Amino acid sequence: MIWKPHVTVAAVIENQQRFLLVEEQVSSGLAFNQPAGHLENGEDLISAVKREVLEETAWKFIPEQVVSIQLWRDNPQAASFLRVCFTGKVYAHDANQHLDEGIIQTHWLTRDEVAAKQSLLRSPLVLESIDDYIKGEFYPLSLLKSSLDL
Q: In the chain, what is the straight-line distance between the N-terminal and C-terminal CA atoms, in Å?
């Protein structure tokens, strides 16, 4: 068997010290997460995070920087995830847009409100990413290179 991590993207989106999170139905119940999802075949990372934010929140997203690149696994028997976390700005919200399947609603929460939901976070990466953002850990988008279909 060949080991391969799942490649995902996520977005830390802040407005007036509140962070955009999605409340979603997962196999274990309700969870809170940044707008996030899997990289699709033929898609670059920036396109993926724009798509995921739009599908999960109905906000258009402009990525500005990379917050972190995280490798995470819940336990030795679980799948591994390579997660590229972005930050940027949202604009043009469409309140009539249907959200992705499983998304219950979106929330703008303070860091402390997110921390108070620690047991409901999709993974520890949610709060870790917010803390990295608050610390000012940012990297330029030029860090990412795509050479698809050359």
A: 29
* Burial (CB count <10 Å: 0-12, 13-18, 19+), residue 51: middle
Q: How many CB atoms lie within 10 A of CB 127?
A: 17
pLDDT means per 10 residues, the chain with 150 residues, are 91 98 94 97 96 98 98 92 98 96 97 97 97 97 87
Read off the pTM.
Answer: 0.94
CA distance 25 to 42: 27
Residue 60 CB coordination number (10 Å): 14
Q: 75 and 46 in contact (C-beta within 8 Å)? A: no
* Domains along the sequence of the chain with CATH: 6-143 (3.90.79.10)
- Residue whose C-alpha is closest to residue 85's, from 97, 100, 74, 71: 71
Strand partners, 73: 80
